[in-house]
């Protein structure tokens, strides 16, 4: 057997092991970040429940000043929708599908580019005894085989989590009345 044959067999085995490992990864993903904001929930609520206000602090909106965006549906609350198209952050839509006023906003998050994905996002406001608000931002969705394979090399929680952390800091500045 030639050296080239041995190399191809080893590469084939390594690829098979990589694919087998990727297949064992979870079928769903979840990213979550929390931040305490020194403002009452009623001051934070409009900044997470109205998509135009959300985009004042949205870290993805800030990544591309040339982003093309459109709002449709209700002005606020359930049925409110935001569509975007950007060379920097891809294209997709975000729609409020459920809310518990002052407490929870649930959104359907659909990506078209750079890859198709259908996820859920949620903002939960948890008042603290001292009058502040803990904001929890989560995103979860299915993990198909391609995303499982990508997850072997890229830590989705760290990558998306950094953006969530930046966004929550932006939100904190707005809610606490500090310059952004």
UniProtKB/TrEMBL annotation:
Alphabetical list of InterPro entries matching this protein: Polyketide_cyclase/dehydratase (IPR019587), START-like_dom_sf (IPR023393)
Organism field: Roseateles saccharophilus (Pseudomonas saccharophila)
Protein name per the record: Uncharacterized protein YndB with AHSA1/START domain
Domain of life assignment: Bacteria
């Amino acid at each position: 057997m030639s050296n080239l044959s041995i190399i191809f067999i080893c590469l084939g085995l390594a690829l098979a092991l990589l694919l087998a490992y990727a297949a064992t990864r979870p079928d769903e993903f979840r990213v979550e970040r929390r931040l305490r904001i020194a403002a009452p929930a009623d001051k934070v609520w409009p900044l997470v429940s109205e998509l135009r206000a959300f985009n004042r602090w949205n870290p993805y909106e800030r990544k591309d000043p040339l982003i093309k965006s459109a709002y449709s549906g209700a002005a606020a609350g359930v049925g409110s929708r935001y569509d975007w198209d950007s060379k920097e952050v891809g294209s997709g839509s975000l729609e409020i599908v459920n809310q518990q006023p002052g407490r929870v906003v649930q959104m359907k998050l659909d990506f078209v580019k750079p890859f198709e994905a259908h996820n859920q996002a949620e903002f939960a406001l948890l008042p603290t005894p001292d009058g502040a608000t803990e904001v929890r931002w989560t995103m979860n969705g299915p993990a198909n085989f391609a995303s499982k394979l990508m997850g072997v090399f890229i830590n989705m929680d760290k990558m998306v989590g950094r953006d969530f952390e930046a966004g929550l800091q932006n939100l904190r500045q707005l809610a606490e009345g500090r310059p952004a």
